[in-house]
């Protein structure tokens, strides 16, 4: 039945009065727009455009995170190449944060772009041999995000990320069924 609603089978997918909305960013923006409470979407058009460009660049960082993780343990060249590009992504994030001049990507408190980016940063910090202390702006950002109420309520421990990685690389179909 799910593929009848969403032919790509991706999550999340929501259905409102027969209307299907899918893709993480689209469903998140929809929920933010229609439900009450603090809005998470950046309303300033230029700032929002810059955030979207950051997420596009960040996507390359995420791709290289997975390349690093999926490379064979003895394939130093592949691991090093992925790690170098991943580090460039972290430096780009640091530059963005410096230019932004605020604690978070979206301003003085986390917004939707922060919540889109942070889970990947959490995984990178847990699995990849990158010392965020070497990129102080990113380390500060990471630490501040970890203090956020929403992040605290759904964050995974570093060990849980590593356990998932070990199981997934071993081909364990149950790897996706871990967690608190």
Automatic annotation (TrEMBL):
Q: Which residues form the GST N-terminal domain?
A: 1-39
Q: Where does this protein come from, organism-wise? A: Ciona intestinalis (Transparent sea squirt)
Please tell me one Gene Ontology term that the record gives under cellular component.
Answer: cytoplasm
Q: Which InterPro entries match?
A: Glutathione-S-Trfase_C-like (IPR010987), Glutathione-S-Trfase_C_sf (IPR036282), Glutathione_S-Trfase (IPR040079), Glutathione_S-Trfase_N (IPR004045), GST_Omega/HSP26 (IPR050983), Thioredoxin-like_sf (IPR036249)
Which UniProt keywords are present, listed alphabetically?
Oxidoreductase
GO biological process terms, semicolon-separated: glutathione metabolic process
The UniProt entry, under Gene3D superfamilies, shows: 1.20.1050.10, Glutaredoxin (3.40.30.10)
The family line of this record is: Belongs to the GST superfamily. Omega family.
Q: Which reaction does it catalyse?
A: L-dehydroascorbate + 2 glutathione = glutathione disulfide + L-ascorbate; methylarsonate + 2 glutathione + H(+) = methylarsonous acid + glutathione disulfide + H2O
| Stored Pfam families | GST_C_2, GST_N_3
Could you tell me which residue ranges the GST C-terminal domain spans? 44-164
Q: What is this protein called?
A: Glutathione-dependent dehydroascorbate reductase
């Amino acid at each position: 039945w799910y593929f009848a609603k969403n032919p790509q089978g991706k999550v999340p997918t929501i259905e409102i009065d027969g209307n299907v909305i899918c893709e993480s960013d689209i469903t998140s923006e929809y929920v933010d727009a229609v439900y009450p409470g603090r809005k998470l979407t950046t309303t300033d058009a230029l700032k929002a455009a810059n955030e979207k460009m950051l997420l596009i660049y960040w996507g390359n960082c995420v791709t290289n995170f997975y390349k690093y993780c999926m490379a064979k343990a003895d394939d130093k060249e592949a691991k090093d190449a992925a790690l170098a590009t991943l580090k460039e992504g972290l430096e780009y994030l640091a530059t963005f944060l410096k230019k932004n001049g605020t604690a978070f990507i979206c301003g003085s408190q986390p917004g939707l772009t922060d919540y889109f980016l942070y889970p990947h940063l959490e995984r990178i910090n847990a699995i990849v041999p990158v010392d965020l202390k070497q990129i102080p702006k990113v380390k500060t950002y990471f630490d501040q995000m970890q203090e956020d109420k929403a992040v605290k309520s759904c964050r995974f421990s570093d060990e849980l990320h590593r356990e998932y990685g070990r199981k997934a690389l071993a081909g364990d179909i149950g790897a996706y069924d871990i967690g608190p």
